[in-house]
Amino acid sequence: MKLILTADVANLGGPGDLVDVKDGYGRNFLLPRGLAIVATRGAMKQVETIRRTQEGKRIRDLDHAKEIAGELQGVGTVTVTAKSAGQGGKLFGSVSPADIVGAVRTSGGPNLDKRLVDTKGHIKTTGAHQVTVRLHPDVAVELPLDVQGV
After folding, report:
1. Which of 94, 96, 126, 137 is deepest in the core (most CB within 10 A)?
2. Would you identify the family this protein belongs to, as annotated (predicted)?
3. According to the model, what pLDDT value does residue 59 have?
4. Which of 66-71's residues contact partners 24+ apart within 8 Å by CB, and which partners?
5. Please, are residues 93 and 101 in contact by the beta-carbon 8 Å criterion?
6. Positive or negative CA dihedral for 97, 102, 103, 104?
7. Tens digit of pLDDT for each residue in 76-86?
8. What are the φ/ψ torsions at residue 13 (nearest 5 degrees)?
9. Which residues of 14-34 are buried (b: 16+ CB within 10 A; e: fewer)?
């Protein structure tokens, strides 16, 4: 089965790569998770668009990771608003890495990939929390997070 990857897949390739995988792996794993699309003539035209959008989020090397780490530390405490369950500061659901990435972006920080954010479990209460952003195997940034209920 020929597929075009839309995200990085370990031991397979990166966004925009044309890969040939076994039918079951493509049909049961890659396609349902949105990691790939079927390689049709129309999809081949979208390969460059896929590469450009992923390139904006990609961290190129150690120096680039350190530069982004400096930008993240300059942002300071990031505020995330979530639906509160009322008394006691509990939340309906939890704060996801996508919520954190959106809050970083709105506070003037860099455009990150949500897979880089490690919440160390579920964030289900309001208040101050710490999350780790792993930009590179050698660069990790502790980001202070303030969760506020609505």
Report:
1. 126
2. Belongs to the bacterial ribosomal protein bL9 family.
3. 66
4. 66/139, 68/110, 68/112, 68/135, 69/133, 69/135, 69/139, 69/141, 71/109, 71/110
5. no
6. positive
7. 899 998 888 77
8. 160, -175
9. ebbbebebeeeebeeebeeee
